[in-house]
Amino acid sequence: MAELPKTPLLDELEKGPWPSFVTEIKEAAKHKASSRDLLGLLERSYRERLGHWKHGGIVGVLGYGGGVIGRYTDLPQDFPAISHFHTMRINQPPGWFYTSKALRQICDIWEEHGSGLTNMHGSTGDIILLGTTTPELEPTFQALCAVGFDLGGSGSDMRTPSSCVGPARCEWACYDTLGLAHDLTITFQDELHRPMFPYKFKFKCSGCPNDCVAAVARADMSIIGTWRDDIKVDHAKVKEYADKGLDIERTVIRNCPGKCMEWDGATLAIDNSACRKCMHCINVMPKALRPGDDRGATILIGSKAPIVEGALLSSVLIPFWKPEPPYEDLKDLVRTIWDLWAEEGKNRERVGEFIQRVGLGNFLSAIGLDPEAEMVAHPRENPYIFYAVGDKE
Amino acid sequence: MADKVSVDEVAEAMYKQVASAQGVKKLKPGDLNKMMAEIYGDRVDRDTCKLAIRKLIESSRCVYTYFGGSYIELPHRESAEN
Amino acid sequence: MTEATQRVTDIGPPHHEKMMPPVIQKNYGKWVSHEILKPGVMVHEAESGDKLYTVRAGSPRLVSIWKLRKFADLADKYCGGHLRFTSRHNAEFLLTDPAGIDPLIADLKAIGHPVGGIGAAITSIVHTQGWVHCHSAATDASGIVKAVMDAIDPYFTGTKKIPGKLRIALACCLNMCGAVHCSDIAILGIHRRPPRTDVGAVGKLCEIPNVVASCPTAAIRPAQKDGASTVEVIEEQCMYCANCYTVCPAMPLNDPVNDGVSIWVGGKVSNARSEPTFSKLAVPYIPNNPPRWPEVVDCVVKLVELWAANARPYERMGEWINRITWPKFFRMAELPFSKEHIDDFKHAGLTFKRSAQLVH
To answer: In what helix (H) or strand (E) does residue C355 lie, and over which residues does it extend?
Structure first.
């Protein structure tokens, strides 16, 4: 095996306490020519302060339009082993749980077919296999399928849904986030692999309003767990927290956005009718407080990063939804939204931008949902109201 | 109601659209669906269109491409390839 | 339906149940409470009385299969062959026997992975590909993240205490493959010059209407050059978003001199206390300074320390700033306030100060 390239700049990033990605690339470079060239290319980028990648637009596996991101270096003469260096997105198991066996199977496949480098995980949630050649795409895909893995999304398709750890290890999970993410993924395999939308569409499933998968900021449809009944209180445990030195008045009461709690030094009183389900008090006293039993989710729609028309947070579409497998009500709603958006959406227009353009009120009419006060931060301030012509009395 | 058009016929019609648009305009699956609706009216539905696209892709007569968004084109060498 | 093929397709991901340890399968949806035992270690208790210990290890996100195999070995040694990853790239080891915790932490340390990032701590930085693998990067991702994490490692491992959670994210361009726009501190790669249009290539490589439509400020117009169709860019209208480059490779913006990093603060996604909110601009531009971006690291450390010294318990960066007001934040952070800080895109007027409530 050839010597590793000299990398004086990258070597600086092997110093310090945090684990180094350079060390990871060097490890792979001992085994793989492509990773060796990647190391050399990256050193060059560090010297020149410039990236050296071109975006491909065609490569993939037969039949799928998503899951492979074409990459070619613009310096193929200098770094021939990464002349092709495509990314493969592999749909993660919900909650990112693995057996050591499954993890090793992925490693073995990637040792045989690719660079040996991965991201665990990419931003949308997929396992990212970082770098292989065009001829290796299909064999890698089939090897992965043989051990039960499939590609994730890319391009104008349904992107790989993701979920928080949910009921697998969290007492705050208000619904089965892993189950819903898995069910949506399986139901919409066609939409995941075969781009058919104006642009991407992401689902993220968070089990409670702490929103550990950032659904409100990163998903076209954000499904965030919540509850409708009273917070469950273990008063003895509240007292325990206080006795151990927690300043309940200052830390809990004053931070309550609904101002619905009182603490007299002995008893915690909650006016649950004013509780906004923010999670703060529960976060502070997890042994004493829990979400209620009438659990479900709020469905929000439309968040995205800035490209094209500016960043958006998701906004409320269904204030409270009772998730029950096989989730047909949600799937019907999703199909209705997709049909409308596919018909009326502009090229590269996310559903959130589409709603901004046509107006939330018109969007609701088109998908057959009634407006509800929960959908807005406040009612309109401007008096230029569009009344449909023909509306009578 | 008129007979539904077959998947094969829709696939052929789509292929013609893709071929004549090649190099001029990139077509999205949604564009093809709309074109088919214009040609066949209610004799074609979305599921038939989906299957027709799948047929074109799986026979390698057409490919998915990505340039900021996803399109359907005739196979060609990509410009970024070395 | 289409004819059956020999190839396996459309199987989707493995079901999570196949991947979860028995203790989770047994207690799925039946957890009652949890407690953080020490930095990076917590215990969850189920209705059944079963306990599950989690050890969270930091990771650079970019990991080789040789490292993953070591993780798999540790999962075999301590966790019955199971592990998981978090939404912020950490590896989590799930134990039923607390006796394994300290030896596991020692083993993780031996392979270079610190344990921490739970509760009132800074956890791993969500980030993008950067120069490692992206065509549109205005900066590197992994390098800055490594340098910043080296500097704030004590807040991950818990040797330095902070008032609450602080989430850092990095995106190497405005595409923002990550929740950068809602982070306590966001590091965002930016371009600062319009695309260098390859006039001859645009018409060959790209569709002119798509390129024109890609521009959020309508700065791109169709044009003719030597009888061929191309585009021209009204440079004063360009805000360097690189959206045109995404649809047309003949319009590169990458620029070794003018590309760099901006710093944004005060965003959050959680609903706890205050509602989710975007990050706001703190520092418009810091030049790229590889390999360790010392100016960026200094800025982040300064912001963390300022927040840590002044915020109340549980108060996130944005909540603290909202309490003290933004002008005071700029003064305390000794950051200059410039024209770039004032929004001039859609709904910019909503960000103007529309009252006389000021802290003088």
So the answer is: none
- Write down the mean pLDDT value for chain A: 96
C5 touches chain B (CB under 8 A): yes
The shortest C-alpha distance from C296 to chain A (Å) reads 15
Report the pLDDT value the prediction gives residue A239, as an integer from 0 to 100: 97
Domain boundaries, chain C: 10-110, 126-191+257-341, 199-247
Give A152-205 pLDDT, tens digit per residue. Answer: 999 999 999 999 999 999 999 999 999 999 999 999 999 999 999 999 999 999
The answer to whether the C126-191+257-341 and C199-247 domains have the same CATH topology is: no
Inter-chain CB proximity B25 and C207 less than 8 Å: yes
Q: What is the pLDDT of residue C3?
A: 46
What is the per-residue DSSP string for C141-159? SHHHHHHHHHHHHHHHHTS
Q: What is the DSSP-derived secondary structure letter of residue A75?
A: -
- Note whether A91 contacts C13, CB cutoff 8 Å: yes
CB contact C159 to B (< 8 Å): no
Q: Mean pLDDT of all residues in chain B?
A: 93
A256: left (phi over 0), alpha (psi -120 to 50) or beta: beta
How many residue pairs bridge chain B and chain C with CB atoms within 8 Å of each other?
26
Closest in A65, A83, A343 to B82, CB measured: A83
Confidence of residue C4 (pLDDT cuts 50, 70, 90): very low
Contacts of A214 in chain C (CB under 8 A): 87, 179, 182, 269
Q: Which domains does chain B have, with CATH numbers?
A: 7-81 (1.10.10.10)
Question: C9 touching B, CB under 8 A?
Answer: no
Q: Is C251 an interface residue toward B (CB < 8 Å)?
A: no
Q: Which chains touch C (3 or more CB pairs under 8 A)?
A: A, B
CATH 3.30.450.20 fits C199-247, yes or no: no
pLDDT digits (tens, 9 = 90+) for A295-322: 999 999 999 998 888 899 999 999 999 9
Instruction: Encode C31-77 in three state secondary structure.
Output: EEEEEEEECCEEEEEECCCCEEEEEEECCCCEEEHHHHHHHHHHHHH
Give tens-digit pLDDT for C54-102.
999 999 999 999 999 999 999 999 999 999 999 999 999 999 999 999 9
Q: Using CA atoms, how far apart are residues A74 and A82, in angstroms rounded to an integer? A: 10
pLDDT value, residue C272: 98
Nearest chain C residue to A98, by CA = C19
Please enumerate in sequence order all residues whose Cβ is within 8 A of that of C169, keeping only pairs 6 or more positions apart, or say none.
C125, C126, C127, C178, C179, C180, C183, C185, C186, C187
* Of B57, B60, B66, Cβ closest to residue A57: B66
Closest CB to B79 among C205, C209, C247:
C205
Question: Does the CB of B58 have a partner CB in chain C at under 8 Å?
Answer: yes
**Amino acid B23: pLDDT:** 83
Is A91–C12 a contact, with Cβ atoms under 8 angstroms apart? Answer: yes
Across the interface, of B46, B53, B69, the residue whose CB is closest to A156 is B69
Cβ within 8 Å, pair A155-B66? yes
Q: Cβ-count burial of C6 within 10 angstroms (0-12 exposed, 13-18 middle, 19+ buried)?
A: exposed
**Residues A83-119: pLDDT tens digits?**
999 999 999 999 999 999 999 999 999 999 999 999 9
Between CA C38 and CA A109 the distance in angstroms is 37
Q: What angle do CA A244, A249, A251 make, to 5 degrees?
A: 75
Pick the CATH number of C10-110 from 3.30.1300.10, 3.40.50.150, 3.30.70.3340, 3.90.1150.10: 3.30.70.3340
Class of domain C126-191+257-341 as given by CATH = alpha beta
How close does chain B come to C232, measured CA to CA in Å? Answer: 19
Q: What is the pLDDT of residue C2?
A: 45
Q: Give me the interface pTM, i.e. the ipTM.
A: 0.96
Q: How many CB pairs under 8 A join A and C?
A: 373
**Residue pair C191/C255 in contact by the 8 Å Cβ criterion:** yes
Residue B1 has pLDDT above 60, yes or no: no
CB contact under 8 A, C35 and A287: yes
pLDDT of residue A1: 59
